[in-house]
Specification:
The structure is a single chain. By secondary structure, this protein is α/β, with parallel strands linked by helices. The chain has a domain of 109 residues: 5'-nuclease (Rossmann fold, 3-Layer(aba) Sandwich), CATH 3.40.50.1010. It has eight helices and six strands. A six-stranded mixed beta sheet has the order 3-4-2-1-5-6. A hairpin with a 2-residue loop joins strand 3 and strand 4. The termini are far apart.
């Protein structure tokens, strides 16, 4: 009796998914070097996937110039001195929300203070790459025709020709 009541309660209960409130600030160039990634776009793609699956928000900051944009919950920013922008963003947000800075730069760690969570770039990117599914190999794709027996394949071929 208790078991059926428990099951009914579970069915009636609504699952509430609460996103992680952490705001991530990523040191783009630092992550590029730590992960030996081939391009900024590859890194941005991986980070956009990270923030999307975690339900967090974030910004990746690169040195230099480029097209600033948003990809879902990830902003892509550029600055002449990325470290200065990272420090400013952390200072602006750390009193109102949980902030995590992903960088191996010690100067950034000291400047952003103890109210900010710090994650080394190498550790973060290693975890990010390990979680990412491998790219599909186009040569190993299965074809429907490979799973059909010879008779069915012949019938389908006849039908195609009669059209």
């Amino acid at each position: 009796m208790d078991t059926s009541r428990s099951q009914r309660n579970l069915r009636q209960a609504k699952l509430t998914i609460v996103p992680d409130p952490t705001y991530y600030i990523f040191d783009g160039n630092n992550l590029m070097h730590a992960g030996e990634l081939s391009s900024r776009e590859e890194l941005v793609d991986k980070l956009a996937g990270f923030v999307a699956t975690r339900g967090v928000r974030g910004v990746v900051v690169f040195d230099g110039v480029g097209d600033e944009r948003g990809i879902g919950r990830l902003s892509v920013r550029y600055a002449a001195h990325a470290d200065d922008l990272i420090e400013r963003l952390a200072a602006e947000r750390r009193t109102g929300e949980r902030v995590a800075v992903v960088s191996s730069d010690r100067a950034i760690e000291h400047a952003t203070g103890k109210m900010v969570t710090h994650a080394p770039a190498a550790d973060f990117i290693a975890g990010l790459i390990a979680v990412a599914p491998p790219a599909p190999d186009p040569q190993s794709r299965l074809k429907v025709e490979d799973s059909l027996d010879a008779d069915v394949r012949e019938q389908l071929e006849r039908m195609r020709r009669e059209r």
